[in-house]
Amino acid sequence: MISRRTFLKLSGLLIILLVTKSLFSWFSKPKVLHILCSASSEKLSATISLSKGISEVSLKVDEKIFNGIKIDREGKHWQFICEKLKSNRTYSLSLVSKKEILEPDWPLKTLPNENQEANNLKIMAFTCAGGGDGTSFGGKEFFKPFVFRQKMFDEGISNKPDIAIAIGDHVYWDLRGGDLPPLGRQQSAFIKFLIGSLLRFLYGSFKRNEDGLSEHNEMVLKNIGNDQIASLYGKRFKSIPIFFLPDDHDYFENDDAEENLVTFPADEFSKSAFKGMADLFYPPLLDCPNEATERKIGRIRYGNLFEGLFADCAGDMSIGGKEAVLIDSKNEDWILSRFKNSSAKHLAFIPSHPLGYTAGKWREWYPDVVASDEEDGIIMNELLSGKKGKLTTKAEKYLWQKGWFLQHQRFLKGLSDRKDNSFTFSGDIHAVGSNQIIKSGDYLLRKPILSTLVGPISSSTGTWPSSARGVIASKPEFLDVNEKLKIREENGFSLINITSQKVDINLHICGGHQGSEEDDGSVKEVINLKV
Question: Which of 159, 295, 342, 444 is deepest in the core (most CB within 10 A)?
């Protein structure tokens, strides 16, 4: 039993400590929590977050000063777009607030313009880096610990890539039409209640009747993003332009189609929540058609050597039979025009959902669905349902749209018809692999197109397709391919080395299949693929 006098003394000491901490925080210099930068030939951009709000901050680029754009209400999140710079030049950047240096000098280079000769380019590419730090429940680890993922990042960065590409699923916080993640269908109502209450306490919950950028929802976005983005990336990529391409989970939904719930096309809340998270934490895409700012489409142009074309397959997807698309028709037209007119020696199509692979998911280019030999008719593939079967087209995938495959055919034809070298790479399917597509449906490609799964960062025992969907992903039934690398459920990343003469894709395999205790994210194996 604590006496009244002791209780008062302890209470007084606690109040003094809290006040002292508050005053220290008030007067201390803000700490830079994360920096992510991007580049084009004449622009640099940076997005930062701080430990405390401030009223102004500038980015010094050599001797030029660019004022920050405040993104949030507290002044903790800032964005910079630095224009009218010289191409193919390394600049010295620093962050300054009221003449106080918040972040000392670091280098960042603009890209060569399309008329400049470029002889070498090294790209680091990966997918599905999101998820909480070692998130586990129901006896399964769903996302690898941050130290595992950061080890993979550091392994890639040690190879000195010129640019990095993060493909889709930067955040996992699936709502399924509600205000909290569903936490898996196999969990009891009591476990869901307990974990949901904890998440609500730690992060808050969205108010879907408000805009994703409302004051309340902004705080929830920041809590999630500080955990899954700022804490994960930190400042390790600040000298490497990094390009973020969104996919379904970045709209706070899994791409589910079931009798009582269809999560896409994205509703207005999901779109505004995606925009809020992107503005707060990701660098903007600087090279977009018609100065688009939606972050759904853009390109990397690296001199006369390379052009990479991004496309979000979730944010603007549609339902409508043969007219349905995964990529907005206007954006499709732009991509096809770049296939035809680009003067780059090598061109890569980088959709957020891959060509050449299926895991039986709803929102895929392909009609393949997971079904047993006894099943026919219309099949719904529910995530984490525990269902077993095999991929087939004999059954019908619920609400799958033929127009998605027709759009796929147009993209493949555009890539195959291109005179100069072309290939495609993507992520999403939580695996590594590489297929050379020869024939798709009735279309025999004029030249084969290599499609590569670049490797996931955070997958663990609960998020491999074999666990979440009951099958290992594979090539779709409608495609004929040369299998260059048999699909493997491993974490990894790709280093794509491009010269005037050739493209080499080096897949770095980092394991992580058996959970946290198995390995630490180090590279176990490197597999070389020729484009």
Answer: 295
